[in-house]
Structures are given as structure tokens and as C-alpha cells.
Amino acid sequence: MADTSSDNDIDLAALDFSNGVTYNANLGVLEVPKDVSSFTIEIPTVDDNRYEGDETFGIVIDGQTVTGTIIDNDPITLSLAGGGEVSEDAVYAEFTLELSNPSDVPLTLQLQRVDGTTDDNDFTTTTASYNSGTEDVDIPIIGGEIVVPAGVTDVDIRVGINDDDQYELDETFELKVSESAALTTNGVTGVTASATISDDGQIGGNPGGDNDNQAPTIDLDGEDFEVIFESQSAGQSNVFGYYMVDDQGNPSDPVVLIQDSKSGISSQTVLAELDSLDNVEFFLIADGADSTPDDATLSFNNQGELLVNGQAPTEPVFLSTDNSEQFNVIDKGNGETEIRIEDIVLGNSDQDFNDLVVTLRPSASSQGDGYQNTFTEGDSPVAIVDEDINIQDDIDTITRAEIKFTNLKPMTLLGLI
Hints:
The chain is mostly beta strands. It has three domains: about 10-70, no CATH class; about 80-210, Immunoglobulin-like; about 215-365, no CATH class. It is about 0% helix and about 40% strand. It starts with 15 loop residues before the first strand and ends in a 25-residue tail after the last strand. Residues about 220-225 have low confidence and may be disordered. It holds the Pfam family Calx-beta.
């Protein structure tokens, strides 16, 4: 007996012959009684729980061969669990793929991420693996497909999540696993499981996880943010400033805030007051004080390079729009942002990020209080905030706002225009 079956598929010890025919296992021959001209042979198959596909075998008797086919009755059904609600800083969303029974042959499956409100920018790398009993073994994902080794019934699939600092509301996606060779009951329809990426500090309605949903900043007098000098410990005389970036990412309008970082500036000095941090970026010219005098004109060329008096500085220039590793930006969680700058290329520096330290913080009136106006009863109405009031939030639309009054008198009217 041969072909695609094995000793595990056929019970040779239970062979059954009709008409008195017997099998002499010692001699390997059939013994047929006198006058018997025909007989049947029954070969029991082993009913296991493994998918093997249809298998063939052959019997050779006195040079004559007949074949048989074992029809497999253990089709594989795929099931997919996991996903659920995960925090954006969870690194990945985890799914578990289960095969209803093991397969004796490798099984090729297709993986597909189906975006709901997510897109490619929300994800990193997807990985797959199984546990051999002693260790986790990676399964390569090639062209969106994995090959599950024979015998494996559980596969761990991790869809990598990009942890950015942008509040995006809850975002949903699905993972679909399908099989195109009709070896499973699911086939090309496949199985799916969904996941929700949360970055609002809530998981399942309870506090937890990443929170990019920062409270809106309400500026009552039209002055938004102060740029505060904290400290410097550089051996170089650095030039520091800010510039604007348009919607296409083009830089313009550079402004020097510190002409020489070693000039003895006092800590907590307010370097600038900015109406908004929208489209504001920062630059540092390392040891550029001598080549950037007080009356120097700074600009950008068409290639986005910073120029001093029309020439590119010979000293290194670091721009925050380049996602430069020289800038370490820290959200201090109280509305303040600390920027720590390394003035030597990281590969050659001590990487302490204290060569220049500045803080961006809302001005006192930008905290939602501190603006005052006086109304005399009987006179014309007055504004309770400046005409330049600015409300900044990290998502496009503010859906709810609350105004509270103290010492409110009857018949006081409030108008919103």
C-alpha cells in the first residue's frame, strides 16, 4: 500500500476478507480456499480529527493493482477572537486565530486589515506567531499571506498601532482572515474581528490608556502663549528662534529670540508672546552667534534652508519641522510644553538635551481667567472677553462649552455674538 495515505490512515490489523480468504502476515501472501473464484477485501480506515485532504492508496495482488480513496471528513473551521478596545499606546491590537482541528498539510491564509475610520497612518507592522510548546515562533507575512505549519492550531496576530500625539476620536478597523484553496469551511468569506483604537484616556468607560484629548485652551485677551527661557549649559554660543510653516509645509518668517545663548539671559525671561502655536516651529543655529549679528536678516530659500543675510550658515542648523532628533519635546501635562535642545549632532554629543531649554506656556489670561472689564448699570454693554478671544482645541469641533458666573444678579442678560 502506498500513495498519499500512511499507516496512520489505514488499520492493517483489521483487514477483512470474504469467502474464507485469509492473509498470512508471516509470508506476506493471501491464502485462498479451493474453488473460491472471487472475494472482497475490506480495509478499515482510521477516523481521526486531523485534516489530511483526500488520500489515495493502492493494493497489489499477484501483479494486479487496485486503488482506493479515503475521503477526509475533518474540514477545518477558522475562528478569530481578540481586538476589542485598545489604547493607542498599547503598541499593538492582538487577535487569536484558531483552527478547529490540526492539519497534516501547511495551510495558506490571507490577512487583510479593513479600515473603518482608521487609515495607514494609524498602524505600524503586523506580525504573526505560534507557540511550539517551548517558545514563540514567528510566521513570516509575505504579500499579505501566512503559511500555518502542519499541526499548528493557534496563531497569534498582532496589528501594530502608531502612537501619535494627535487626538483622533475612537477609530475602528477589522482584521479579516480568509483561505482561497477551499481547504476550510470559511473559504474566501473568511472570519473577521473588530478593534477600536482609543486615545481619550478611557478604556471600556473606565480611566486608562493614552490620552491625546487635551482640554481646549481659552484665551480671554487675545494673547496666547509665552516662550520662556529656562536654562542653557552649552559650550557654544547658539542662536535660537521660531518661524512659521504654511499648510504645504513651507517655512517662512524666521524670528531670532536668542542671538547668543551664552549672553547671560536670566531664567524665566519671556522671550516672546505668540498669538497661537498653530504653524509655529523652532530653529537653532549651533554656535552661530558670531555669524548672526543683531542686524542680520534671516530668510528661507525655496529648498526650505535657513539663510542668514542670504547665505546658508556654515554652522549646523536644526529645524523642528525636520523631526530633528536634536529637539526633545516634553508635554508637561499642565498646558506647558518643554523643549530641550542638543546643539551637537547626536552621534557626537553627550545627549543630555540641556544645551538650551525653553518652555511654551499659556499666558496668565490664557488660563481662562484674569481678563477684567467693568460694567456700570445703565451704561452700554461691555464685552466680558477681548474681541481677539481664541479657543484652541486638538480636534476640529468643540461640541460643548460651559460658562459660569459668580455673583450673578436677577435679570442679568448675556448675549453671544
